[in-house]
Amino acid sequence: MPVTDITTDAETLTMTLVGDFDAPAPRLWRAFTDPRQLERFWGPPGWPATFSCFDFEVGGRADYAMTSPQGESSRGAWEFLRIDPESGFEVLDAFVGEDGERIEGMPAMRMTFSFEGTDSGSRLTSVTYFTSAEALEQVVAMGAVEGSTLAINQLDAVLADLRDYAQGKGTRTELLSDQHVRITRLVDGPRVLVWRAHTEPELMRQWLLGPDGWRMTVCEIDPTPGGRYRYAWAPDDEALGEPFGFDGETLLIEPVQRMVTTEHMTGTDYPPTTNDLSLYEEDGVTLVTTLIEYPDKETRDLVLATGMTDGMETSYARLERVLIA
């Protein structure tokens, strides 16, 4: 993982994060100063950021919101205090409300970002300065150490050319925590078609089949917030297994970009998961990322042991053939 160290110091009232990357320092600089790239990693998994403005000059302001799978928002604003081209910058970071004004009782923090070359690539050093021990304790209690680590650990995928990072590597499963799993797959096709393939039943029936020998018998979907869906599969040969299905609710929808749903195995009392699907396109290919939240580690391990990743890979390979056709 890129983050090599993150520490808090009650004496100097600071939190320091250090990360090492294979990319050169100028590339790291571009990732932090292009809002479209910054959006891909500034929020931790499950809380992606959207920058509504980014006035990158001393005295300028950047506004962002991080949105949870349930649609909750955490908003912040930067005031740019110092900019040293390609080597670093400094901001005043504050919690703000929907009106863009600072939230009373929430701390404002001075943050510095510095980028330097190393023998193997580049190093990020970010220092957050707090005005009091209480402010430091408050932000740490909100999960800043864990959240910052998870967020910055997403940077590798941003810094690398998407084809170099993911093409030919199939479906990959990463354990992020006892309850969270991230699954990624690069699909050779534009995002708009990949989105349609996830939301239009006539397309879904052609690829969302898992291992060979299964057919989709039910495909009902309402891709609007509060809408319900139901999928079911049956084997061509009873020896392959028994019919099964899933049902759930659409929690959040950002067309062509993000869809969050619950997922429950139909006819069982198993607890549901939350599935956060996001699509990112670059150079004609689309990175499909699904962040799954399980109720506990036992459920996570039980599901992964079913060979879920292999089944998803078979479906995604089939999806690419459908898109080509």
SSE blueprint and pairings:
Blueprint: E1 3-9, E2 14-21, H1 25-33, H2 35-38, E3 49-54, E4 61-67, E5 73-84, E6 88-96, E7 108-117, E8 122-129, H3 133-141, H4 144-152, H5 155-159, H6 162-166, E9 172-175, E10 180-187, H7 191-199, H8 201-207, E11 214-221, E12 228-235, E13 244-254, E14 258-265, E15 273-282, E16 285-293, H9 297-304, H10 308-324
Structure description:
This protein is of the alpha+beta class and 325 residues long. The protein folds into 2 domains: 158 residues, START domain (Alpha-D-Glucose-1,6-Bisphosphate, Chain A, domain 4, 2-Layer Sandwich), CATH 3.30.530.20; 162 residues, 2-Layer Sandwich (Alpha-D-Glucose-1,6-Bisphosphate, Chain A, domain 4). It is built from 10 helices and 16 strands. A hairpin with a 3-residue loop joins strand 5 and strand 6. The longest helix is centred in the C-terminal third of the chain and has 17 residues. The chain is elongated and about 65 Å long.
